[in-house]
Every structure is written in structure tokens, then in C-alpha cells.
Amino acid sequence: MPLPIAHGLTGASIIVASREAFSWRADWWPLLVGAMLAISPDFDLFFAWGLGYSERLHGGISHSILFAIPLGMLGALLARNFTRRGIAIYFAAALSHGLLDFLTKKEFGGAALLWPFSSQKLKLGLFNYYEFTPAPGFQPFGEILEQALDVSYYEILTFVPLFMAILFWSRWRQRRAL
Ligand SMILES: [Zn+2]
Q1: Are 11 and 36 in contact (CB under 8 A)?
Q2: Could you tell me the pTM of the whole model?
Q3: DSSP line for 148-163
Q4: Spans of all domains in the chain
Q5: Measured in angstroms, how far is the CA atom of residue 42 from the centroid of ligand 1?
Q6: Ligand 1 centroid vs 175 CA: distance in angstroms?
Q7: Which of 11, 16, 47, 65 is the most buried (most CB within 10 A)?
Q8: pLDDT tens column, 54-97
């Protein structure tokens, strides 16, 4: 499964892409809100691991298109951009999570994008994301951490260039507009 780095950078990329004139100083907070929103659906793991609910909960309601609507409104509110466009932007950041999960799953997992119409966890099934399936209780914590660091390393290699590309594209667009 994509880890917070991949999800957060995707959310942040959406915020940069939505800006007519991106600036770190003016946009660091919206950027952070977008990144947090894109990570937040995985907080269902807290219920699964922390509170002892079944791990099957993961990838469910919080990964749906419907759930991204209140998340988008919350994001727009937090970023003080509670307009129709603002809500749409943060909705996209929140929804990017379920979509990324959908795109990167093959055999197991997925995202219940269509909940409540269907609880099926959808997955594209084209390729396998890194085989990162921590099973707390069965695996020593150090091993899980080691795997997580491995995956994070690859996510940085993949998603930081993506983020930078969007940033440069945004700057280029800005300069052309001047
Ligand atoms: Zn997820």
C-alpha cells in the first residue's frame, strides 16, 4: 500500500497544480492541509490496529468518493478557502487517496470507492505495489519498521520528482502569464 509519503505528496501536488501563482510563503498551509487530507483515509488503520477492530475495516468507508466530500469541505474550511472551487480542490486531494490505492493494488486490498452503493474494495489489478503488508503481532516491530523505511525510500524517489515536476510546471505557467 502506498505510505503517507506517496499520499501526502500527491495531495500537495494537487494544491500546487490548483494555484495560479504558487508561493511557498503564501501556500505552505494549504499545502499542508492538502497533504494531510490525502493521508487521512488511512487513519482507519488506527481503528483496525489501535482499537482492535478487524483489519478488514481498512480501505473501506474512509476511502470512498462520498467520504471525500466532507473531507474536502473540512479542508476548504481549514485552509480558509470555503468556496465552491476551494471545496473541489480539497475534495480532489482527499479523493486522490482512494484513487491511488485503487491504482496500486493487485491481489489484495483496494479502496471501497463506491461505498455505500457497494462495499467492494476496488483495485485495478494491473501491477503490484511494493509488497508491504505489516501484520502487527505476527512480525517483530523492527522488521515492519525496516520494510516501511524501504518503501518510504522508493516513494521519495517516485513522488518527490512528480511533485517537483508539477512545481516547475506551475512556475513555468506563471512566468508565461507575466
Ligand atoms: Zn489507504
Answers
A1: yes
A2: 0.87
A3: HHHHHHHHHHHHHHHH
A4: 4-177
A5: 5
A6: 36
A7: 11
A8: 777 889 999 999 999 999 999 999 999 999 999 999 999 999 99
